What we know:
Blueprint lengths: L6 E4 L4 H12 L5 E2 L11 H11 L3 E4 L7 H6 L1 H21 L4 E5 L28 H21 L3 E6 L1 E3 L12 H15 L3 E5 L5 E2 L1 E3 H13 L6 E4 L5 E2 H12 L4 E5 L8 E2 L4 H6 L7 H15 L3
Parallel strand pairs: 1-2, 1-3, 3-4, 4-5, 5-10, 6-9, 7-12, 8-13
Antiparallel strand pairs: 8-11
Bound molecules: guanosine-5'-diphosphate.
Guanosine-5'-diphosphate binds next to helix 6 and strand 7.
Amino acid sequence: MEKDAKIYVAGHGGLVGSALVRKLRAEGFTNLVLRTRADLDLTRQADVEAFFNAERPVYVFLAAAKVGGILANATQGGDFIRDNLLIQTHVIEAARQTQVKKLLFLGSSCIYPKLAPQPITEDCLLTGPLEPTNEPYAIAKIAGLTMVKAYRAQYGFNAVSLMPTNLYGPGDNFDLASSHVLAALLRKFHEAKIAGASAVTVWGTGTPRREFLHVDDLADAALFLMRCDDSGELINVGVGEDIAIHELAMLIRDVVGYTGDIVYDTSKPDGTPRKLLDISRLRALGWQARIPLREGIAATYAWYCANYGG
Ligand code: GDP
């Protein structure tokens, strides 16, 4: 990738998009094309086509999506399937029409069956029923990566689909109704510490296991795969180990410096029991995550304090 190649990062205001922009700038890429949602609504096909025809980006990172945690997915499934289908269909089609050199599509580990054998390999795709709490989102993402694959077969479209595990980091969503677990717990423990509260409530039983990848590691993997000629069609991105939610809660309590109790609200869903990706394909290409979980949580907590007033 030439340093002055025109690169469109769709969704640059989000957790992943902002990490990609940081990474690309740090690597010396100077010709980034960015549009806020107010400037370009990706759910409107004519606007997306006009934008691609005018700008003609050479590389596209498709990180624009409607995302959310377990509760948001369970309660706004209609919005999740509609917005994601529209955004990805329009961007992928416009990229094909304007002969983009390579597109990177961001999927998610929740596209895999709820009870997939662990760690989950890429070939588990479409081998069993999905986790019901995020089925609309997962089906939209599966449609996206199937579209990319079919475009490759029919049109020779050059693209790679990344399946990142649960992400966290600076720029995360800390709204308790829609956030993912790590950001939610950072905020809950922080607020309990400030308020001197006696306990923090964690959803579910605390037994589900999740794998957490710092978004700066994901951005590094994304650039690596954009540059890689044999990146393949579908590739998992993770750290290779998982942690139970109750262990995560204790780790975050420790990082935040809260000394009260942890209680579990079992009226809230656990979601899928375990989600650990098999990352052998990515490892074989020569990439590995670098940010240890505790360090990544501490950096994210510092970011949260700096941006939400401590
Ligand atoms: P998931 O990986 O798609 O299930 O998404 P989440 O990050 O939202 O949830 C992961 C796990 O953390 C689930 O078992 C949740 O029940 C659990 N969890 C515990 N406390 C919280 C919380 O405060 N917010 C969220 N979003 N999840 C929580």
